[in-house]
Amino acid sequence: MSFLRKDMFGNNAAERGRFEKKAADIIASGEPLRLQLGFGRHPLKDFLNLDFRYRILEDKESDEFYDTTFIFDWPNGIPIPDNTVDFVFHEDMYEHLDQKEQYYLLTEILRILIPGRYHRINCPNLEYIMRTMSDFKKGPAGIHDEWAAWHHKNVPTKISLEEQARIVGYRQVHFNGKNQTVSGVVFRERRPGGQYDQKEYNVFADLQK
Question: What range(s) does the Methyltransferase type domain occupy (predicted)?
């Protein structure tokens, strides 16, 4: 068995072009177009997997994923026509964006989604983290530094994420649990829980266009 390697991937322009052609072929075929953004080390079957830098470990993922895995600056815009994507998924990524970047992402995905389809977000829940890991009686010294601990920039709560989504124009937000998306798309989610309450520690949300 052969595996994905960093040297298989071209420069930014080449990767962007390769992705654009693959997406156009899927759209023309009438098959569902599904995207995983910031796939990290884990590309998904039946998705086009995008990241802006190569993170896959050696001898971990089959080179069969090469045709559906792309490394380019997708945060600067996803080269897909409006209203053509069936499903968008990302986890452990949203909290690494600042507030402006989050709004940019929400609007770009809203643009490319087919009306009625879903944008799936998995991320930590700041409300639960602050309540369970901080000791506010100690003042600022008692605040759990979620940001420095994990290089996070803007960690949402369920309330703040829903507000962002509605401001941008998503018509409904469904909160549920791990592997419980209302979209009907079946795939593996990896969002961690550890010793914490899985449903409270995390935000699992389906944003419907």
Answer: 78-116
Expressed as residue numbers, the domain containing 180 is 6-208
Give a yes or no: residue 131 inside a domain: yes
Can you say whether residue 102 is alpha, beta or left, with left for phi > 0 and alpha for psi between -120 and 50 degrees?
alpha
Question: How many structural domains compose the chain?
Answer: 1
CA 203 to chain centre: 12
Kindly report, residue by residue over 62-100, the tens digit of the pLDDT: 999 999 999 999 999 999 999 999 999 999 999 999 999
Closest residue by Cα to residue 120 from 38, 181, 34:
181
In a domain, residue 130? The reply is: yes
Among the listed residues 142, 82, 138, the one whose alpha carbon sits nearest the alpha carbon of residue 108: 82
Diameter of the chain by CA atoms?
Answer: 60
**Structure token pair of residue 110:** 């809203």
